[in-house]
Write a structure and sequence with these properties.
The protein is of the alpha+beta class. The protein has 2 domains: 356 residues, Outer membrane efflux proteins (OEP) (Up-down Bundle); 86 residues, Outer membrane efflux proteins (OEP), CATH 2.20.200.10. 62% of the residues lie in helices and 10% in strands. The chain contains 11 helices and 4 strands; from the N terminus they run H-H-H-H-E-H-E-H-H-H-H-E-E-H-H. Helix 3 crosses helix 6, helix 7 runs parallel beside helix 11 and helix 10 packs antiparallel against helix 11.
């Protein structure tokens, strides 16, 4: 049993390097990740979508069933620590031969003057039993206890998985919602630019009639207008797909997705309180799930190690046993007994060693997964914390660019009318302002999505 007696070192959830003390140098423990979604999000329409999804989303409902499955598994493994008691009724019949041990013995017994008629053994002989039989494996080395501990850890991990799915679902809905708001802004921008380009096309057509513009200029303006109209249809398709994504997440086939259409006028989100990294470990469901999976595999290893040692099973019984039906419930037919069974692995030790080695490898893999989860969580916080800051600054610069380009379009149109600018300058100015306005909407979307992702990275969204 040397393999089973080797010193086992429990696998502890730890990272290769110490976790940094802060995210951005601040030791403030206020943490936005502890806010419930109803307090974090201010848009009533978005909150309505989130609430609906939490009630009916199929993935979330499946996760609840997995929690029930894990809870049932805990009860099953807990029951293994207790004796099993079964009612048992047994009936058998045997005819013994004259030249068998039973035959000779029973024949001799029947001739004895020390027995009465009820005690004489018939041939064939019945074997009747009615009573209770129990079996109890004494958990000497903690094998069953560790199986129960592993099941309990997996049950808790399934609850963390449900919370993780809730967090991800909240983030997905918020991301799709802000994407939908952005597409609405893009559609408005495109429609506005179509009108501007239609006016410019009419002007150049008039100038062509007056000999001040060429057919090439007309074709260039028409090509730009067709391109912008194409963007209109492309954006409309993206709106449909985004709406259907939200319907999928909220378990709906159709219906209007209510939303705020004033993305560009929404107040920019303020910098979130991130707390300290140790709070992230406690609040992020994926980190907790990885830690619990590691604990479950640690218990599996201990259980596999205990399988190398002898096991003791006690099998008591009590009831009535007789060879005649009329005598079965006679007080003299009452019986009881106790069997003790000790077994130890001999030829199957190779299989036990393989299982033990497999459990250890799984435990190490779970440790690496835990380390990866913690590292990923920290990087997500940093990325989105900086994302909010940089995208906000980028948005301010893009607003200045849009303002300048709008002025450039107006100036280019005026100069073109008086013949001091060519049509290419007008087309370029119109194209540039369209691109910049679309980028402006997308940058503001990125600010809000960074805020959502930071909230999720801090473990927010499941409360």
């Amino acid at each position: 049993m040397a393999a089973g007696c080797k010193t086992f070192k429990p696998i502890e959830p730890k990272t290769n390097e110490p976790l940094p003390a802060t995210f951005d140098g601040s030791t403030d423990t206020l943490n936005a990740g502890y806010l419930p979604a109803a307090s974090f999000f201010k848009d009533a329409r978005l909150l309505k979508l989130i609430d609906t999804a939490l009630r009916v989303n199929p993935d979330l409902q499946s996760a609840l069933q997995r929690i029930d499955m894990a809870a049932a598994n805990v009860k099953f493994n807990k029951s293994l620590l207790l004796p099993t008691v079964n009612f048992n009724a047994r009936a058998g019949l045997e005819r013994y031969g004259d030249y068998t041990m039973n035959g000779v013995g029973n024949y001799d017994t029947n001739l004895s003057p020390n027995i009465n008629d009820k005690q004489r053994i018939p041939n064939p002989t019945a074997d009747l039993f009615v009573g209770f039989r129990a079996s109890w494996e004494v958990d000497l080395w903690g094998k069953l206890k560790n199986q129960k501990n592993a099941a309990l850890a997996r049950f808790l991990a399934s609850r963390s998985a449900y919370r993780l799915l809730t967090t991800e679902l909240t983030g997905q809905i918020a991301t799709a919602y802000y994407q939908l708001l952005t597409l609405e802004v893009e559609q408005n921008v495109i429609n506005k630019n179509i009108k501007l380009q239609e006016n410019a096309l009419e002007i150049v057509k008039v100038q062509k009639l007056g000999g001040r513009a060429t057919e090439l200029a007309v074709q260039q303006f028409e090509a730009q207008l067709s391109h912008t109209r194409g963007l209109q249809y492309s954006t409309a398709q993206q709106i449909i797909e985004t709406e259907n994504q939200l319907r999928l997440l909220t378990g709906s086939f159709n219906g209007t997705i209510e939303r705020d259409t004033s993305l560009l006028t929404l107040t920019m989100p303020e910098k979130l309180k991130t707390g300290v990294p140790t709070q992230m470990l406690l609040n992020r469901p994926d980190v907790k799930q990885a830690e619990l999976e590691l604990a479950a595999l640690d218990a599996d290893i201990k259980s596999a190690r205990a399988a190398f040692f002898p096991s003791l099973t006690l099998s008591p019984y009590t009831g009535y046993n007789a060879f005649k039906g009329a005598l079965l419930f006679n007080p003299g037919s009452a019986v009881y007994g106790l069997l003790a069974d000790v077994t130890a692995p001999v030829l199957n030790r190779g299989r036990l060693k393989a299982d033990y080695a497999s459990r250890i490898a799984e435990g190490k893999a779970a440790l690496f997964n835990y380390q990866k989860t913690v590292l990923n969580g920290y990087q997500e916080v940093i990325n989105n914390l900086k994302g909010m800051e940089n995208y906000s600054k980028y948005f301010e610069q893009k607003k200045l660019e849009v303002r300048a380009l709008k002025n450039a379009v107006s100036v280019a149109n005026d100069l073109y009318v008086v013949g001091r600018a060519n049509y290419l300058e007008v087309i370029t100015a119109q194209r540039d302002v369209l691109t910049a306005e679309l980028e402006l909407a997308n940058i503001k979307r990125d600010v809000f999505i960074s805020e959502v992702n930071l909230y999720r990275a801090l473990g927010g969204g499941w409360r």
